[in-house]
């Protein structure tokens, strides 16, 4: 349905997106995963015809849309990362406006607005001004505004940033429902692994402007089939313990968050003995050691040496 | 385009305070400065007539463009005349008046003539009323009507050199402040475009079924309408609230505002194209608006500026031509045909600014 071919975007000296190839089939949810600054937003801006690529092509049903963007725009819904709404208008007035710019009018528009309000759960707050909404409600309306013209393809740029878990679940469920009930194709960008794991059929992982891995969730996790994820909790972080860990050839990719150290090590190595030894040598109190099946987060750690939210 | 206009006006109605406050500040400043540059000569008056008769007579006397008659105690009037603080005082009685002066001057001569004229008209109306057995008010109306439709008229013309200057101290601040304050109003409406870009609403519009020209026209037409409405509101307050007659050119002035407001919208669009963010725009417009007001003759008439550099700079400022249009029509009595030159300059500026501005904005998008 939609395809990016060797897509590149250069801003002065910086290559924000570098030879990205990806595709979306009709009716699937594809995740674009990567940390902040990985080039996800630039990629989707090019895919949605908002900015032209420096080189490469975007094809919709095998036809380039660089010269004729209307072909894609007519069936495209976009949910930007920002709250792209008028905060001094009510939820209903916003939907009316975004419906009218898609040439909806009269009874059709009214019905659509009511339907969307129902879908995003804002029917009882439809006359309240957006500026009085919570973050989650604004995010839901931000999605609703992209659905009025019944797009075939929905591009969502980190739609759950900065909201409470309840609203986040609501949004994820809504996206899933749209995909299942209306066969809407979705390109979902995020830096939350669990969202992408929950929603997506296929995933592209991006870092520093390049696609570094792609495939189904299982395929990507398979990258780490030969490794364990080890999560070590310590009473107090100790620099000499960390240094000792880093010098071990069997320990790979260490990430630290608060008093939790996450690392990767080959499955055949018994790391327990090693860890106790190092802890004793460096006077470090270990609170717990947990062996985990690799997650997408671990895959990212393995591929880039950094955590997703670094 | 209609959808953009309707959303914008809805947003404006939710928060009209900036435009209202700008208009009030403009009206207050123009009134205060206009009043402080009062050029009429003060004439103290005492009266032996009944209070209603005195008031009627004072009303007639105060129609003078040269003298301002003020009722006061006889002793106070004498002191003012004796101390030379006023040139003359007038003592009003039933069929005659007395001029109290210390010395004969040109002004006292004209004052005597003027008061004499008002008394003659009053006596004429009284005579008609007595002869025709009708009330005096009706007689006055008949006289006024006869004056408005005279049997024949005498048209007087005079030669005025190219450099002859007329400064209307009442209209100068009204025009100046109106044209100055509207710069902010228009600029801050056009600025919304940058805000919409930052917030992503612009992108939603780009990806909608709207054509790009519709998006620009909707946004810019709205800015134009708000700016234009503000000046119409200010002029209307002066015309219908404070009785300033704009030398009978009110309707013409409203037409002449069109090219000026258009050039401001285009100028703001150029700034939007030049700056990177809203903060830069706000800083730049504050600086430019004040500079344009000073150079373009909003604060003081350009007629009194002698610096060639300032006069040359004024040629590139839309406000100069805006003032030229308004003063040309109201103060110098020029017809719209005679004002085609400043009008076409403003349209030309508008087209150039708009072209460059939109081009820059589009390049940034790329």
| Residue share in β-strands of chain B | 5-15%
How many individual helices of chain A? Answer: 11
Low-confidence stretches of chain B: none
What's the average pLDDT of chain B? 84
CATH superfamily of the largest domain in chain A: P-loop containing nucleotide triphosphate hydrolases
Helix content of chain B: 55-70%
GO molecular function (chain A): ATP binding; ATP hydrolysis activity
InterPro entries (chain A): AAA+_ATPase, ABC_transporter-like_ATP-bd, ABC_transporter-like_CS, P-loop_NTPase
Keywords (chain A): ATP-binding, Nucleotide-binding
Protein name (chain A): ABC-2 type transport system ATP-binding protein
Task: Write up what this structure looks like.
- The complex is a heterodimer of chains A (310) and B (366).
- Chain A has 310 residues and is of the alpha/beta class.
- Chain A is 34% helix and 29% strand.
- Chain A has eleven helices and 14 strands.
- Chain A has helices at 40-47, 70-73, 91-100, 106-119, 135-144, 165-182, 193-199, 217-222, 239-246, 271-281, 296-304, and strands at 2-11, 14-24, 29-33, 55-60, 63-64, 76-79, 153-157, 185-190, 202-207, 210-216, 227-234, 252-257, 260-266, 286-292.
- In chain A, a hairpin with a 2-residue loop joins strand 12 and strand 13.
- In chain A, helix 3 (91-100) packs across helix 4.
- The radius of gyration of chain A is 23 Å and the shape is globular.
- The mean pLDDT of chain A is 85.
- Chain B is α/β, with parallel strands linked by helices and 366 residues long.
- Chain B folds into two domains: 2-35 and 169-365, no CATH class; 40-148, D-Maltodextrin-Binding Protein, domain 2.
- Chain B has a four-stranded mixed β-sheet with strand order 2-1-3-4, with helices on both faces.
- In chain B, helix 3 links the parallel strand 1 (41-47) and strand 2 (67-71).
- Chain B is elongated, with a radius of gyration of 27 Å.
- The A-B interface holds A 48-52, 73-74, 76, 78, 80-86, 88-89, 93, 97-98, 100-103, 129, 145-146, 149 and B 3-4, 6-7, 10-11, 14-15, 198-201, 203-210, 365-366.
- Chain A: Keywords: ATP-binding, Nucleotide-binding.
């Amino acid at each position: 349905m939609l395809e990016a071919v060797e897509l590149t975007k250069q801003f002065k000296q910086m290559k924000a997106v570098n030879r990205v190839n990806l595709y979306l089939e009709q009716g699937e949810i594809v995740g674009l995963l990567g940390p902040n600054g990985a080039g996800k937003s630039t990629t989707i801006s090019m895919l949605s015809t908002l900015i032209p690529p420096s080189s490469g092509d975007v094809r919709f049903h095998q036809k380039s849309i660089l010269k004729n963007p209307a072909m894609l725009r007519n069936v495209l819904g976009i949910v930007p990362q920002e709250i792209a709404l008028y905060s001094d208008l009510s939820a209903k007035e916003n939907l009316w406006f975004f419906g009218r710019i898609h040439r909806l009018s009269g009874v059709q528009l009214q019905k659509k607005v009511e339907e969307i309000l129902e879908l995003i759960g804002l029917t009882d707050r439809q006359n309240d001004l957006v500026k009085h909404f919570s973050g989650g409600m604004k995010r839901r309306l931000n999605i609703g505004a992209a659905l009025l013209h019944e797009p075939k393809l929905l591009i969502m740029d980190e739609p759950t940033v900065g909201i409470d878990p309840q609203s986040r679940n609501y949004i994820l469920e809504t996206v899933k429902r749209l995909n299942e009930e209306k066969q809407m194709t979705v390109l979902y960008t995020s830096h939350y692994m669990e969202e992408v794991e929950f929603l997506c059929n296929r995933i592209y992982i991006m870092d520093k402007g390049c696609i570094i891995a792609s495939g189904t969730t299982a395929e990507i996790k398979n990258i780490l089939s030969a490794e364990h994820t080890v999560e070590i909790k310590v009473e107090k972080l100790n620099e000499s313990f960390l240094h000792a860990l880093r010098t071990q050839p069997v320990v790979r990719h260490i990430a630290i968050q608060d008093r939790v150290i996450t690392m990767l090590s080959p499955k055949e190595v018994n790391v327990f003995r090693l860890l106790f030894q190092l802890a004793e040598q460096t006077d470090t109190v270990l609170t717990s050691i947990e062996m985990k099946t690799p997650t997408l987060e671990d895959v990212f750690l393995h591929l880039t040496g950094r955590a997703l939210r670094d | 385009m209609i959808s953009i206009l309707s959303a914008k006006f809805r947003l404006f109605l939710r928060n009209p305070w900036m435009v209202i406050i700008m208009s009030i500040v403009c009206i207050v400043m123009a009134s205060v400065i206009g009043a402080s540059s009062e050029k009429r000569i003060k004439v103290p008056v005492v009266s032996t007539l009944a209070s209603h008769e005195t008031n009627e007579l004072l009303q007639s006397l105060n129609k003078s463009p040269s003298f301002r008659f003020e009722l006061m105690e006889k002793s106070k009037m004498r002191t003012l005349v004796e101390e030379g603080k006023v040139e003359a005082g007038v003592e009003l009685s039933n069929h005659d008046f007395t001029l109290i002066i210390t010395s004969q001057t040109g002004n006292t001569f004209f004052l005597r003539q003027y008061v004499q004229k008002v008394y003659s008209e009053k006596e004429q109306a009284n005579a008609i009323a007595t002869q025709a057995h009708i009330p005096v008010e009706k007689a006055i109306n008949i006289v006024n009507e006869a004056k408005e439709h005279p049997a024949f008229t005498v048209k007087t013309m005079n030669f005025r050199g190219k450099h002859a200057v007329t400064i209307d101290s009442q209209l100068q601040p009204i025009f100046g402040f109106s044209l100055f304050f509207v710069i902010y109003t228009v600029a801050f409406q056009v600025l919304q475009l940058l805000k919409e870009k930052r917030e992503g609403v612009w992108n939603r519009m780009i990806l909608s079924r709207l054509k790009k020209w519709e998006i620009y026209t909707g946004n810019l037409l709205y800015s134009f309408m708000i700016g234009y409405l503000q000046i119409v509101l200010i002029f209307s307050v002066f015309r219908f609230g404070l009785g300033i007659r704009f030398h009978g050119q009110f309707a013409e002035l409203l037409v002449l505002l069109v090219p000026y407001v258009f050039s401001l919208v285009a100028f703001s669009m150029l700034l939007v194209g030049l700056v990177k963010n809203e903060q830069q725009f706000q800083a730049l417009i504050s600086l430019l608006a004040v500079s344009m007001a000073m150079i373009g003759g909003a604060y003081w008439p350009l007629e009194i500026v002698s610096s060639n550099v300032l006069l040359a700079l004024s040629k590139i400022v839309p406000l100069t031509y805006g003032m030229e249009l308004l003063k040309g029509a109201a103060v110098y009595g020029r017809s719209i045909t005679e004002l085609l030159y400043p009008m076409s300059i403003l349209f030309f500026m508008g087209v150039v600014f708009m072209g460059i501005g939109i081009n820059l904005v589009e390049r940034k998008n790329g």
